[in-house]
Amino acid sequence: MNTMSKVLVVSVAVLAAACSTVPTSVFTEAASARAETKQAQAESKQAMADVKSMEAKMAEMKAAEVKAIEAKNAELKAAEAKIAEAKAEAKAAETKHSPDSTSMITPMMERQQTVRATGYAVISTQNHRNPAQQRLMAIRASKLDAYRALTEQVYGQQLDAQTTVAEMMVTSDTFRTRVQGIIYGAVLESITPVGDDTYETTLSLDGRVVNDLRVLYLAQLAARR
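The structure corresponding to this sequence follows.
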């Protein structure tokens, strides 16, 4: 053999010796690492599948809750519709059974939306010696007179008349009027002196308040019956 061949044979022998010295545990650890990697991958796939399953179950539960809420809302709407229908029937029955009250209140409802009333009081007739106090008392009296006028417009005025006739002659003819009611929400529009010895006070009521007062009055009349 020449020198080149001898060198090649020696290199091959050295390489074989090196390979024979590699421990078997290295190959065993590599195989174990590959197996663990495969197992981790399988576990990861299983975890992803579990997550998707949980998401699907949560979506189903949410859809069921939404359906239940919609069903409850539908039931509530149906109940409200029944209540409204019952109220309408009760109102129609009440209107049917009390035609007199309806016919009495209808013309008043068609009047102007704002009701105004004016009251008057004389200063010199007030029971006080101090002129300033007399003016204050006159203002108060004119305001109360305006409230009385408002009450007459809202509730009407009860009139009692009595006439006595003897021997075909009228011997007695008396009238008695009465106003009763509740006024709230009145607006003081003005307090004005009229002349030298009189005060004038003007009050007003919104039409919606007037309607509420009249409905309350009719309810009280119905309760008394």
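The chain is about 65% helix and 20% strand.
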